[in-house]
């Protein structure tokens, strides 16, 4: 647990100023801040410095807007020497979120910083995020929960009948680098969730409202009125500040004029500003359910956002038939799947492909060699290029992101981008007398 976390701002007349700190009673001397500022300036390009003295470790995170432009604002984390093993994780958190904090305007960032500092302080027991599934009976809430978080195959799920959920069932899950608790609710008891004493929506970070496509087709007036109710309910209660998403589920049951159906619902929902997904878990899930899953990752996992920001521009530039992409944790277990199933793959092939690649990556990793950070080779089975990007320098909980590439030009650009990002993540160690 860090002894102190400080947000240091800059004022043109006053110089360095502590804008916020956590815990409240932690102390730092002004002369140390000046010394850190000088150190940052002296290392120049690389923004982040780790200082070691006899009994303390000091991490200074500085966000460079542009190369060469000096930046006098930074975050300081002070640790006891005995906490050295915590350093890589804290550096990773600073890299993932520090830049965002420093970029916010001076008057607004203290709060964001304090949230960050609190989370970092209990980073071993990271704050759990809350997700709520509410909606009509039989609309696929419990099925989607298993589909998203328990990796149960969709065909199996469709064969099983879950007993209707009673009340609220909460289950904890790991979502990449976030811990979440999913609140699955009973559709029969939906009226209860609209009362302030019983609603699970208080403290929810992200809520999904489930209807079936047939609900909309057969009784759109009820859906409209219930969606308006939920919006009003949230607006009239300050305790509820969630993001809301609509899942129009079992979309496979709409067999005629799917585009007309979508347009009809979108015309109603778009003015409300609620994202809607036309989801189905049939045949390993349709495109919308995968995109809906990724929206959840974007909202809840800083590491996913980082990967996304890094890979997406390149993917967009090169994507033709969709990429296969998955992530491995530090034990080489697949933890997250960005597979956009395309015509070249069926699920069996994908699984076989993953197994082979994981075996290979393990082998490469065992021989400790220098190209372990970035490997690419061509895969005979899929006739594609496979790229393995080492992720442990960004976050020690992960080993690789594996992806397919269509061309060597893509690989080349990816390599350049990857090297750039890695440099911005690197920390310099300094000793100060
Ligand atoms: N056709 C179709 N049926 C589904 C889909 N997802 C779930 N179901 C079925 O819908 C039924 C109700 O699902 P359940 O998850 O228990 O609904 P809940 O009451 O909202 O929790 C089950 O029999 C599921 O097999 C889907 O995408 N398409
Ligand atoms: Mg249920």
Summarize the structure.
The chain is built from eleven helices and 17 strands. It is an alpha/beta fold.
Structure explained in plain terms:
- The protein has 433 residues and is an alpha/beta fold.
- 38% of the residues lie in helices and 26% in strands.
- The protein is built from 11 helices and 17 strands.
- The protein has helices at 30-43, 87-103, 109-121, 141-149, 154-159, 213-236, 258-269, 287-300, 302-318, 347-366, 408-425; strands at residues 4-11, 15-22, 48-52, 56-62, 74-80, 128-135, 168-175, 178-185, 206-212, 243-249, 276-278, 325-329, 334-337, 374-379, 384-390, 398-405, 427-431.
- Helix 9 (302-318) packs antiparallel against helix 11 (408-425).
- The protein is globular, with a radius of gyration of 24 Å.
- The model has no long low-confidence stretch (mean pLDDT 86).
- Bound molecules: guanosine-5'-diphosphate and magnesium ion.
Oligomer: single chain
Bound molecules: guanosine-5'-diphosphate, magnesium ion
CATH fold-type name of the largest domain: Rossmann fold
**N-to-C SSE series?**
EEHEEEHHEHHEEEHEHEHHEEHEEEHE
Mean pLDDT over all positions: 86
Tell me the radius of gyration: 24 Å
CATH H-level name of the largest domain... which superfamily?
Answer: P-loop containing nucleotide triphosphate hydrolases
* Top CATH class of the largest domain: Alpha Beta
Low-confidence stretches: none
Report the biggest beta sheet as strand number plus sense, adding barrel if it closes.
Answer: 6 strands, mixed
Strand order of the largest sheet: 2-1-5-4-3-17
* Class by SSE composition: alpha/beta
Provide the helix percentage. 25-40%
Number of helices: 11
């Amino acid at each position: 647990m860090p002894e102190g976390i400080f947000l240091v701002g800059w004022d043109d007349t006053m110089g360095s100023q502590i804008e916020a700190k956590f815990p409240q009673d932690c102390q730092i001397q002004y002369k140390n801040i000046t010394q850190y500022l000088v150190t940052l300036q002296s290392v120049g390009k690389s923004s982040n410095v780790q200082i070691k003295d006899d009994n303390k470790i000091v991490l200074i995170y500085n966000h460079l807007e542009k190369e060469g432009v000096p930046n006098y604002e930074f975050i300081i984390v002070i640790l006891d020497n005995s906490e050295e093993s915590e350093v890589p994780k804290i550096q990773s958190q600073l890299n993932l979120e520090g830049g965002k904090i420093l970029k916010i305007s001076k008057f607004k960032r203290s709060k964001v910083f304090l949230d960050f500092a609190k989370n970092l302080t209990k980073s071993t027991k990271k704050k759990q995020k809350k997700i709520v599934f509410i909606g009509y009976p039989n609309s696929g809430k419990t099925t989607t929960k298993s589909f998203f978080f328990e990796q149960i195959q969709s065909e199996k799920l469709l064969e099983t009948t879950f007993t209707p959920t009673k009340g609220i069932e909460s289950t904890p899950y790991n979502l990449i680098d976030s811990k979440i608790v999913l609140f699955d609710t009973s559709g029969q008891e939906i009226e209860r969730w609209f009362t302030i004493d019983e609603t699970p929506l208080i403290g929810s970070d992200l809520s999904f409202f489930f209807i079936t496509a047939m609900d909309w087709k057969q009784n759109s007036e009820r859906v409209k009125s219930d969606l308006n109710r939920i919006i009003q309910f949230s607006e009239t209660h300050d305790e509820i500040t969630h993001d809301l998403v609509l899942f129009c589920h079992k979309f496979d049951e709409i067999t005629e004029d799917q585009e007309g159906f979508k347009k009809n619902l979108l015309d109603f929902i778009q003015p409300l500003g609620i994202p809607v997904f036309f989801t189905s878990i049939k045949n390993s899930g349709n495109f919308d359910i995968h995109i809906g899953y990724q929206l959840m990752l974007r909202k809840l996992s800083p590491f996913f956002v980082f990967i996304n920001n890094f890979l997406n521009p390149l993917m967009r530039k090169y994507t033709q038939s969709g990429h296969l992409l998955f992530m491995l944790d530090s034990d080489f277990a697949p933890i997250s799947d960005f597979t956009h199933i395309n015509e070249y793959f069926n699920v069996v092939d994908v699984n076989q492909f993953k197994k082979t690649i994981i075996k290979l990556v393990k082998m490469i990793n065992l021989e400790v060699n220098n190209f372990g950070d970035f490997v690419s080779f061509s895969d005979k089975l899929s006739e594609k290029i496979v790229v393995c990007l080492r992720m442990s320098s960004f976050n020690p909980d992960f080993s690789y992101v594996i992806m397919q590439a269509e061309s060597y030009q893509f690989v080349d650009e990816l390599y350049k981008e990857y090297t750039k990002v890695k440099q911005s993540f690197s920390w310099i160690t300094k000793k100060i007398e």
